[in-house]
Write a structure and sequence with these properties.
Helix content is 28%, strand content 47%. It is α+β, with helices and mostly antiparallel strands. Strands 1, 2, 3, 4, 5 and 6 form a 6-stranded antiparallel β-sheet that branches. The longest helix has 29 residues.
């Protein structure tokens, strides 16, 4: 149970989240929370043009590991706005899956298809939760997570694509080097689907955590 006073409530929620997050890899069956890692992204696409290289790529069956190592740094509660905002640090996210790529490198057609791996490091994330009321017959209203959004900033990123240019080692090395030298653009292109995956990670936790509380204990009238 957390106190109602805003600063104490924020600290209590921060500590509770840091306690529960590591357990989300295997899930919490006693609270009907399924395993939440690895995350799964069905597909995403990237279109990039810079200098001599123009690339269109599609990534499918992407798994994401690493969210369970995050830490909640700060939580702010605004009962009047019915809002909770949390700042988090994620040391690393690892992505694995399949890719298809085509484009041009110095007028030379490039293509590839196979496995890929990527890493995001030093991630700062901001989670915004809008709270609402869930009516309970013959009882006070429960609190509910009405909506949850995630935004994050990446400190470092890298990617490795296998089987570029039909397995040509030198040309493949050039292309992988280009992608890693331009990782900021790559991270921006992949940001939206990764934010959605992180939302899917946090939503079950938020749904359960807030459903155990009475709305009148948190929300202002």
């Amino acid at each position: 149970m957390c106190p109602r006073e805003e600063k104490a409530l924020a600290r209590c929620l921060r500590d509770a989240l840091n306690t529960y997050i590591p357990h989300l890899v295997t899930g919490l069956p006693e609270w009907n929370i399924p395993p939440c890692e690895p995350l799964f992204v069905p597909s995403l696409s990237v279109q990039h043009s810079a200098g001599p290289i123009t690339v269109t790529s599609t990534f499918t069956d992407v798994t994401v590991t690493g969210p369970s190592h995050m830490r909640v740094l700060d939580v702010k509660v605004n009962p009047r706005k019915h809002e909770v905002v949390a700042k988090l640090s994620i040391p690393e996210l690892k992505l694995h899956g399949n890719y298809q790529l085509q484009g041009q490198l110095l007028m030379l057609p490039i293509e590839g298809e196979g496995k890929f791996s990527a890493k995001y490091g030093d991630i700062a994330a901001l989670i915004t939760i809008v709270l609402g009321r869930q009516h309970r017959p013959n009882d006070v209203d429960a609190l509910k997570c009405q909506s949850l959004s995630v935004k994050f900033h990446v400190g470092t990123a890298s990617m490795q694509l296998e089987n570029l240019f039909g397995g040509d080692g030198e040309l493949g090395k050039v292309m992988n080097n280009f992608l890693n030298e331009n990782w900021q653009t790559l991270a921006e292109e992949l940001q939206a689907p990764i934010e959605q995956a992180l939302r899917d990670f946090f939503k079950p936790l938020a749904d359960h955590a807030f459903a155990t509380l009475n709305a009148d204990d948190i929300l202002s009238p």
